[in-house]
Amino acid sequence: MAGCPTPRILVFRTNPYGSRVGRRHENCRFCDRIDLHVEVPLVDFRELSSNTNIGEASAVIRARVAARQIQHERFRHCGHSTNSAMTSRQVRQHCLLDAEATGYLEQAMEEMSFSARAHDRIHKVARTLADLAGSINIRPQDILEAIQYRSLGRKLFS
Question: Please, where are the H alpha helices in the chain?
Fold first, then answer.
């Protein structure tokens, strides 16, 4: 795949007590390039140190593996194997929404002033959520959850 960027995972932590003055404009452009904005609470030391912490259930892991297989099959002739790598044309092909989901996305786009990039990223995340749920179609709740993942960045940097 010459010319394709290497897939990366970017993780960063914001300082909830730091000054936000002057950062809004630059960070909104930066955040627009991030697919998932997730707030992760601190984990209690006793919980981390406990012998009862056994990790994820097998069913959760199997669902993730199944979702990855669905994506691999969907893109077997495309040169990539994940929803995150979809082109705009593939988003229109594989991320069809019903009227209810379209209404939710339209309202979010208008009220939150999401960019065209955010529009496609919301579709990609919703497609992945549907795959994780074993759903052929993107459901309204998938769109709502994907919108939620986009809106956290707005709260952090506004």
Answer: 24-31, 45-49, 58-74, 88-94, 99-112, 116-132, 140-156
Amino acid at 149: Y
CB 91 within 8 A of CB 78: no
How many whole angstroms from its chain centre is CA 40? 15
pLDDT tens per residue, range 11-38: 656 655 544 444 444 455 666 666 777 7
Residues with Cβ within 8 Å of residue 150, at least 6 apart in sequence: 37, 108, 112, 114, 118, 121, 122, 125
- The Cα–Cα gap between 31 and 9 comes to 14
Indicate the domain borders of the chain.
57-156
| Longest Cα separation, the chain | 49
Give per-residue pLDDT as tens, 97-139. Answer: 999 999 999 999 999 888 888 999 999 999 999 999 999 999 9
CA atoms within 13 A on the CB side of 125: 22
- What pLDDT, on the 0 to 100 scale, is given for residue 28? 58
Distance CA 62, CA 3 (A): 33
Residue 119 carries which side chain, given as an amino acid letter?
H
